[in-house]
């Protein structure tokens, strides 16, 4: 009886796959909700399953109030992978930027770290969860591609490879045929790594363009006591990269450069550093003769932090939002025009009934706990109807946390979107240790 049931179930599963035409993992799009129209949808948030059996992009609609509704899973036509770590856990790629949307280019690009490829999609501007692959996935020309940068114009995509063949490589974007490898843009980091790489120490982290688009920058974590570095290449007007990179180490207490977020208008980067909190790199200053970041660069501690690795910036708030995989806490950080970085503080009444007595006011550092064990990783900010919202991938909770940002120091959790249930119900595999990425697209 038992085996009869199992056989019946197996047959039923087979029949369902036949009805759908293809095994589930090979289907192009799996709908996670049904809806008649995209009216009221303001944008989409995307991350990826990064499954070794087949990588899928998960797209969720952003509504006018900033909240998310899961929409679909779209096959990326490549495989996910997990770096070698002990213990194995969330943040499979030791990375930020595995999935990147460009509003200017109308495209979404994702890495397939287990296939050494990159897939590009066009985004339907009036229904942004509806993405369509452009061309075929292209070779990253290295191993374990794990982070992407898209230029402001949306015309150039660069990848960071973190495996045995590591370094950067760039592509131009053709709206019909997809990504086209650019000559003279493959540059090695010459790291002694494996495929998949071991980490987090000693692994590659993130790739970004400088704010003016004239430089390409990759970050590499150190292996304490040896500090990591950021690698800076100049970009020629024809898109080729300088033959060599400038290597810049963080200020002495910094060690593990992870995500990089541009400090607007300052030729500087805020770089999360799980060894301390975050580093500021002042790119206007020549590094010291030993390669350490100089000028107004600094390393800023976040007390009680465990592993602060991801960051994004809100234009409306003028502040950065940093996530910690160990504590599950979001920290709001300000960088002033002297490049001094600090955790945002808000004066709050210690005794609510006696707000007028200054003596009763205490300063609260603006940190927003998302729950122990949630493992908050990648995040991004979207401006929806003039309001900013923060989208945080809580990997271990297989959910996306949505925080509204009504004013500096006042972030509020407004939604916890579970994605494991609906994705599993649709027959796809989802694993808290594999999910990665967070990027947003908002309809103009
Ligand atoms: C590269 O790393 C391996 C493993 O840690 C080590 O055995 C080898 O000596 C390293 N090679 C170089 C050139 O540093
Ligand atoms: C781009 O410019 C650089 C230096 O200006 C030159 O070496 C390179 O050959 C050029 N590449 C292309 C594809 O024209
Ligand atoms: C790049 O680095 C190589 C090896 O260190 C060196 O021989 C070469 O002169 C450098 N090129 C430039 C343009 O700095
Ligand atoms: C580099 O030099 C700076 C001072 O110029 C010093 O603070 C720092 O510790 C040095 N770093 C290393 C890795 O030697
Ligand atoms: C979370 O963990 C921290 C440190 O282990 C502990 O102090 C705190 O009480 C925990 N919070 C909750 C809500 O369990
Ligand atoms: C993930 O959740 C499990 C329990 O569900 C917990 O034991 C583990 O510590 C969590 N991992 C992280 C990195 O938060």
UniProtKB/TrEMBL annotation:
Record keywords, A-Z: Signal
Signal peptide positions on this chain: 1-21
Alphabetized InterPro entries for the sequence: Lactonase_7-beta_prop, WD40/YVTN_repeat-like_dom_sf
Pfam families with a match to the protein in the record: Lactonase
Name of this protein: 3-carboxymuconate cyclase
Source species of the chain: Ceriporiopsis subvermispora (strain B)
């Amino acid at each position: 009886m038992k085996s009869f049931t199992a056989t019946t179930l197996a047959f039923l599963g087979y029949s369902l796959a036949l009805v759908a035409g293809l095994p589930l993992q090979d289907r192009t799009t799996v709908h996670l909700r049904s809806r008649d129209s995209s009216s009221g949808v303001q944008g989409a948030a995307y991350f990826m399953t990064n499954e070794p059996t087949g990588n899928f992009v998960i797209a969720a609609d952003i509504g006018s109030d900033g909240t998310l509704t899961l929409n679909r899973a779209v096959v990326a036509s490549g495989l996910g992978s997990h770096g070698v770590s002990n213990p194995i856990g969330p943040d499979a790629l030791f990375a930020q930027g595995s999935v990147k949307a460009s509003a200017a280019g109308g495209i979404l690009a994702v890495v397939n770290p287990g296939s050494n490829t990159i897939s590009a999609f066009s985004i339907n501007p009036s229904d942004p969860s509806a993405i369509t692959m452009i061309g075929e996935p292209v070779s990253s020309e290295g191993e374990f591609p794990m982070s992407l940068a898209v230029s402001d114009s949306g015309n150039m995509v660069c990848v960071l490879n973190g495996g045995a063949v590591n370094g950067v490589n760039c592509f131009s974007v053709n709206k019909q045929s997809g990504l086209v490898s650019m000559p003279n843009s493959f540059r090695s980091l010459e790291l002694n790594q494996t495929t998949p790489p071991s980490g987090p120490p000693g692994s590659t982290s993130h790739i970004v363009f400088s704010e003016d688009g004239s430089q390409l920058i990759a970050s590499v974590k150190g292996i304490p006591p040896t500090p990591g570095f950021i690698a800076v290449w100049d970009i020629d007007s024809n898109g080729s990269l300088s033959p060599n990179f400038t290597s810049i180490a963080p200020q002495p207490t910094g060690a593990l450069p992870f995500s990089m977020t541009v400090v607007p208008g300052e030729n500087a980067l805020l770089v999360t550093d799980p060894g301390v909190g975050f580093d500021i790199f002042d790119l206007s200053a020549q590094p010291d003769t030993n390669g350490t970041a100089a000028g107004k660069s600094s390393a800023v501690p976040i007390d009680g932090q465990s592993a602060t690795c991801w960051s994004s910036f809100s234009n409306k708030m003028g502040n950065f939002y940093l996530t910690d995989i160990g504590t599950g806490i979001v920290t709001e950080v300000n960088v002033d025009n002297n490049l001094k970085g600090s955790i945002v503080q808000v004066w709050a009444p210690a005794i609510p009934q006696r707000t007028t007595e200054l003596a009763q006011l205490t300063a609260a550092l603006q940190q927003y706990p998302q729950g122990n064990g949630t493992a908050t990783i990648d995040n991004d900010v979207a401006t929806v109807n003039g309001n900013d919202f923060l989208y945080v991938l809580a990997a271990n909770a297989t959910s996306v946390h949505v925080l509204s940002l009504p004013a500096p120091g006042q972030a509020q959790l407004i939604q916890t979107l579970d994605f494991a249930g609906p994705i599993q119900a649709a027959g796809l595999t989802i694993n808290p240790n594999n999910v990665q990425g967070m990027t947003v697209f908002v309809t103009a």
